[in-house]
Write a structure and sequence with these properties.
The complex is a heterodimer of chains A (about 300) and B (about 270).
Chain A lengths: L1 E10 L2 E11 L4 E5 L6 H8 L7 E6 L14 E4 L11 H12 L3 H10 L4 H5 L7 H13 L5 E4 L8 H16 L3 E6 L2 H7 L2 E6 L2 E7 H5 L4 E5 L2 H10 L4 E3 L4 E4 L3 H11 L3 E6 L3 H14 L6 H7 L3
Parallel strand pairs in A: 3-7, 3-8, 5-6, 6-7
Antiparallel strand pairs in A: 1-2, 1-4, 8-9, 10-12, 10-13, 11-12
Chain B lengths: L21 H13 L2 H27 L6 H29 L3 H7 L3 H38 L8 H25 L2 H25 L3 H8 L1 H9 L5 H28 L4
Helix pairs in contact in B: 1-5, 2-3, 2-5, 3-5, 3-6, 3-7, 5-6, 6-7, 6-9, 6-10, 7-8, 9-10
Classes of the chains: A alpha/beta (about 300), B mainly alpha (about 270).
Chain lengths: ~300, ~270
């Protein structure tokens, strides 16, 4: 179990992590979701003692990382798959870690097999590895000490769909045996596929947390009429609060049937009427991303883009 | 948002995992020096150059019908290795930063001081091994000289040899010290060779033009303080010079570097 309590990290004026608290429970895969630069990596580095926080504490299984003797036997860490010596072979990277941890060479071979790196790939130097192969090697390195906690920063990045499927199976299995998994991602659909619990971070602050079901199934309705102004009027006269979604449609916080009745009463033609499933999280996440994006994100593009 | 209180807090049972033994850390650090092409090339070139220069000396001596002693050859071999040992000491430290492996190294052993100490011990061991190999090679070359020339000088000054070993260790340590301070391979190498070749000149000029500097120089000139080691002529005052200059050029940079490494944020 990982618990973060009131962790804050500042860089000059900029607050990278702002009073963040959360718990990643054992037996579950917890997704740490947020746009680039939201503070995910900083928080994870603080967890494993690579970055000193300005305030707050991070504990893994009740201990500060530094207090855990031979930590890799308890906590598997993958923070940056590319942070490996380009001139070493994949097998040599694992060998160095295995020697440090004091696990045998046979464990290295087991892990290579587990992550699907074959003999030729294991002998290749890291500089010739694709990002997907580096991620697999990083996972092998994290699992080498047979830990009960995994801290993985963007582990799915660079994996092909089959790789993502494989990772999902691997992590679910790990959590199923009682292990704790915390993995970060900046892609909602990636995390959605793998994680049971979600923690959403934006601009250094936790903006949402809960189970996947809780966060993705917000009550509400998406409605779009032939004439947006007429629809807005109809909703207003029925006392339904509606917020424009930017593409001519509206989001309402009531059931679709009530929106339908309101439209029927006013004789407004609807072109779309559906439960706004997952819209809450999606919208919030998009907003977080849009704030930091270099080009403005068109709401219409966002509509289908994130869940696709 | 406030923290959710866990219903069943699980804790890690640490009783069955002792911390990583220091010897194992040293072993891993030694392995890191030769498991990359850069490491293999560095060690290979060092051995090749040391041998090549000894052979060159041998040929010149034989052609000119000059005199050659074992002590000369030991000196030549260790002079060459003395150039590359500091680079080895530098790379032990800086490659973790340039290749960003420090992130992995310091998650495997969170006590960074232990890792840096293990690197230091690995560097010392390598300096000794390299010096011993260089010295053995000198014996071999002297043997060849004996065969070709019909007899050779086999005098081997043990004290001078120990002095040699010490200078080898010091040169490795100086590289190591600059590396911990700068954490950058290129910068550390440049600064090291600047120290090795520019500082003596600057000191010599300073001593000539600044009268007071002549008195200060023995207390700050690490290179000069080491020179009596070569002919085993160390007196009481020389040891004092060596100790003080050693503090200036080794202990201070290592202490500052260590302070920096312990506090550094790894990204």
């Amino acid at each position: 179990m990982i618990s973060i309590e009131n962790v804050t990290k500042r860089y000059g004026q900029f607050t990278a992590v702002d009073d963040v608290s959360f718990v990643a429970e054992s037996g579950k895969v917890t997704g740490f979701l947020g746009p680039n630069g939201a503070g995910k990596s900083t928080t994870m580095r603080i967890m494993v003692g690579l970055t000193p926080p300005d305030a707050g504490t991070a504990r893994i299984g009740g201990h500060r990382y530094r207090e855990i003797p031979n930590p890799a036997r308890h906590v598997g860490v993958l923070l940056d798959a590319s942070a490996q010596h380009a001139g070493r072979t994949g097998r040599e990277v694992l060998r160095l870690s295995a020697d440090t941890m004091g696990v045998g060479g046979s464990r290295v071979e087991e892990m290579l097999t587990l992550v699907g790196l074959n003999e030729t790939e294991a002998k290749r130097r890291i500089r010739n590895y694709s990002l997907g192969m580096r991620q697999r090697l990083g996972i092998a390195n994290a699992l080498l000490g047979d830990p009960s906690v995994l801290v993985l920063d963007e582990p799915v990045n660079g994996l092909d769909p089959a790789g993502i499927h494989w990772m999902r199976g691997l992590l679910r299995n790990f959590a199923g045996r009682g292990g704790t998994v915390l993995l970060s991602s900046h892609l909602l659909h990636e995390v959605e596929m793998i994680a049971d619990e979600l923690i959403v971070i934006g601009r250094g602050k936790i903006v949402a947390q809960g189970t996947r079901a809780e966060l993705l199934q917000t009550a509400g309705t998406y409605v779009k009429g032939l004439d947006a102004t007429a629809l807005a009027g109809a909703l207003q006269s029925s006392g339904i609060h509606a917020s424009p979604s930017g593409d001519g449609g509206f989001r309402c916080e009531v059931e679709p049937v009530e929106v339908g009745r309101a439209a029927a009463r006013a004789g407004v033609v609807l072109v779309e009427l559906k439960p706004a499933e997952g819209a809450g999280l999606e919208e919030m996440f998009l907003q977080l991303t849009a704030d930091d994006a270099r080009e403005p994100v068109a709401p219409a593009a966002a509509e289908g883009g994130l869940t696709a | 948002m406030s923290a959710t209180v866990p219903t069943a807090p699980t804790t890690l049972d640490l009783s069955s995992t002792p911390r990583v033994p220091f010897a194992r850390l040293v072993k891993v650090e030694l392995r890191k020096t030769y498991d990359t092409r850069a490491g293999v090339w560095l060690l290979g070139i060092t051995s090749f150059l040391a041998l090549a220069v000894m052979v060159l000396v041998l040929i010149i001596v034989l052609v000119q019908d000059d005199k050659l002693t074992l002590d000369d050859l030991v000196g030549v071999a260790n002079f060459i290795t003395g150039f590359l040992l500091p680079v080895l000491g530098i790379m032990l430290v800086t490659s973790e930063w340039s290749q960003r492996t420090a992130m992995v190294t310091f998650t495997l052993e969170a006590h960074r001081g232990r890792v840096v100490s293990a690197k230091l011990v690995a560097g010392l061991l390598l300096a000794l091994i390299v010096s011993l190999i260089a010295t053995v090679s000198a014996f071999v070359v002297n043997g060849i000289y004996a065969v070709v020339h019909g007899g050779a000088d086999w005098h081997f000054g043990l004290l001078a040899f120990l002095g040699f070993l010490l200078t080898q260790v010091f040169s490795m340590l100086t590289g190591f010290a600059f590396a911990t301070l700068l954490l950058n391979t290129a910068a550390a190498i440049v600064v090291y060779f600047g120290y090795k070749f520019l500082i003596p000149t600057i000191f010599a000029i300073a001593a000539q033009y600044l009268g007071w500097f002549e008195k200060v120089q023995p207390w700050v000139d690490f290179g000069q303080a080491q020179s009596p080691l070569f002919d085993a002529s160390m007196g009481g005052k020389d040891w004092a010079y060596l100790a003080v200059t050693g503090v200036v050029w080794l202990a201070v940079p290592v202490a500052l570097g260590m302070w920096r490494i312990l506090r550094a944020e790894l990204k």
